[in-house]
Model the fold of this input.
Amino acid sequence: MSPQSHQILSGDLRALARAATAIENRSPQADHLLRELFPHTGRATIIGITGAPGAGKSTLVDKIAHALRQENKSVGIIAVDPTSPYTGGAILGDRIRMLDHHADPQVFIRSMATRGWLGGVAAATTDMAVLLDAAGRDVVLIETVGVGQDEVEIAKLAGVTVVVLVPGMGDDVQAIKAGIMEIADVFVINKADQPEPDRLEREIKAMQSLSTRKDGWVPPIVRTVAVDGQGIAETLAAVRSFLAHNDGKDRAVANWSQRLREMLRERLLHRFPDLDFHAAAEDIVSKRTDPYTIIDAWLNR
Amino acid sequence: MSPQSHQILSGDLRALARAATAIENRSPQADHLLRELFPHTGRATIIGITGAPGAGKSTLVDKIAHALRQENKSVGIIAVDPTSPYTGGAILGDRIRMLDHHADPQVFIRSMATRGWLGGVAAATTDMAVLLDAAGRDVVLIETVGVGQDEVEIAKLAGVTVVVLVPGMGDDVQAIKAGIMEIADVFVINKADQPEPDRLEREIKAMQSLSTRKDGWVPPIVRTVAVDGQGIAETLAAVRSFLAHNDGKDRAVANWSQRLREMLRERLLHRFPDLDFHAAAEDIVSKRTDPYTIIDAWLNR
Done:
């Protein structure tokens, strides 16, 4: 085993930070590290927290992290961010959050841009979770924005997924809920001091009454005012209740099945190091050829 | 050329609908069709419309479609939906929308689930846009939810991207804006009759003052009350103003470069038809092996 893996397994923070950067940069070193670290994973509780922008997820994640620290548990936070794909600009909020936990080495925060992950956001998030798990973090919190494909995949990675909603979100809240009903193991109605939390809770229950989950679980609905710390203990209790109900094995198998497919695709692509995608794309845009003909030509070389 | 391609190019609606379904199902027939249709693309205006859930995107898209129909333009709408990955349940709102335009064959709507696209949502959306473009639709409206990786990719596909915001979205509106500043060619403040649209406009302008786009464009900010039809004409004018400014070639090249990469990856994966990803994933979860060892073994067969 490499010295760096040893350092990570023994909880060395600087080694952890370096490894996180290697994963972010997809350096070849990262693959080697992950291979060494993988057998030491499986102990961390991985909690996914997702919801629309404005739902107060970051605040909720922070308060949960603080509550876990009260129990003397170590925490890793992976914030999957809709960072600018072009400028690489970082999200203001996260910089502030990092300052907030700065003094506590037992809260490790990494903000992952969604740009530039050739193998996909979920793949990079999986790698980061493997790292934090191996590094001995008791709980890994993965915060994602929205309800797209990425969030669905990350929900498979997490042992339990918390979906955060807010009263009065607007007229297509039905659409949101249709997308998240299946990934939510716990619902949080945050900002429950705003008007009409009862109405939102009724709507969630109405959606729940329409279908039954295969595992028989009925996701509990917890009300929070995260900014005041209200409902945080109840949220954690609901999370633990689900984890006691479901061992997460099916979900982990589904996640790794998808990750293997992605890893294989990426590695196969490495066999074509000299392809000029940009020049080919220019030929397509100028209609000198079409994408299907190009792919055939590459495959038949 | 196949009879089906002929029918599509001549505007046959049933052929179009069958082809859309073939693309959704990723049938081998779809590849063949797309190859035939590709040379006939490039005439449609592709408009991306994105924003958080609750922003009223669907209503805005509908009103824009109606305005375009007043100009006698034909319209295709691709709604990229966070549909359930497990049950395949459809979004209630879209069913209603389809009824709304049901009587008008010149508004073709397809709702694309984000689940199950092995090659990615952006790839499938590209294929659908190729189809609608070849089928002679004057304008293709692509509606996406959120600001994740998918939306960023789809923004490259669109010639112009409209970002929809709403006053009073909550305390991490800064975070949303950081993610969308770079993809927005036009900002729409929808529900502008709600309190504090001025404040949101000031915030957008403050963000805009922090950086300059490479193309020198300063995205205009349009106020709408989409549900009442207010501001729709102004939105279309802003969209056309951008299209007059930017021919979209750089964006199209970036999009096809990414698509080629994905297409090649998928096709390479087809060379391993007999791999049992599920069984391998089970071995990983039970710690009998690790993912990196499995990939190496597959590649070295």
User: Anything to note?
Assistant: Chain B touches chain A through 95 residues (CB under 8 Å). Chain B has 13 helices and seven strands.
